[in-house]
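Dear colleague,

As promised, here are the two records you asked about, laid out in our usual form so they can be pasted straight into your sheet.

NAME FIELD: protein one
SEQUENCE, THEN STRUCTURE:
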Amino acid sequence: MTTDAAPREASAKVEEYVFGGLVAALGVFTLVDAGSIAATRDAVGARAFPYAVGVLLLVTGVAAVVATARGRLGEAEDGEDVDTGVRTDWLTVAKLVALLVAHLVLIDLVGWPVAAAVLFFGAAWALGAVWWEALPIAVVLALVVQVVFASGLGLSLPAGVFEGVPLLDG
């Protein structure tokens, strides 16, 4: 055992406490926020799923904190296949952030299907995909998501330029 093992273990313990605390806090936030959802008269209303997720988050966070207090720390990763000598490609990160911002702006202007196709295609291209292979996949994926939400789930994503088109307009 090396001499710096004790500081590493203390650091790992703090990280585990922070992780457990954040998960528990997210659970509390979810439970409180679920209370603001308008109640329905159905047996299982709109609050059921957020309450279930909130309880699971809270229980998981508290369990992580208790396990850490009992000395059960998660095992450190061996780095898997990560090459620590490779620097972050900030240009790719900037492209992805720009695509996400463009997606947020485009949703209101042209609707979900077009905005999602731009996001999916742009992300694939930024990460190295061949554009002529990525473009049709992005378009099909965006349309499938729109159809599933609009027709399958009955939820309305902004159709934009596809307003009034059957299956695409929720």
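NAME FIELD: protein two
SEQUENCE, THEN STRUCTURE:
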Amino acid sequence: MGVGWDERAPGVLRLPSGRLVRGRGLRAELDPEEVRPTYGVYLLGHEPPEVPWETRWLKWPDFRLPADKDLARRVLTEVWERAADPAERVEVACRGGRGRTGTALACIAVLDGVPAAEAVEFVRRAYDSRAVETPWQRSYVGRFGD
């Protein structure tokens, strides 16, 4: 059985329910000593490189919104559901780890009960102060609870 994320580790976001999800920028190499995810969702405009853990690619161009919003809702719901298992180490990542990743984390926070109008601020406070970079990403989060 695996061990979940250490909530003090960089990028790990604790949701109000206690679930832990790690956000990360793929631009930075993983430290060889760093704990690996058991499941990763990669928000990129192109297919991500192969890694030795289970992954899902969500087509999401830089500074934009997901190409398929219905699929995005399903994938982000799966992230939220899998994070309920304390042995899972679920991560969400894009190239820089702020815009798309922050937007996805804010949507996951909405699924966890954070009001949509407060989700961007929640993620900026708990994950990265510059998360959710564009006005349309903020608007997407605001509508995610509908």
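A couple of things worth noting about protein two: The two ends are 37 Å apart (CA to CA). The longest strand covers residues 20-25.

Best,
R.
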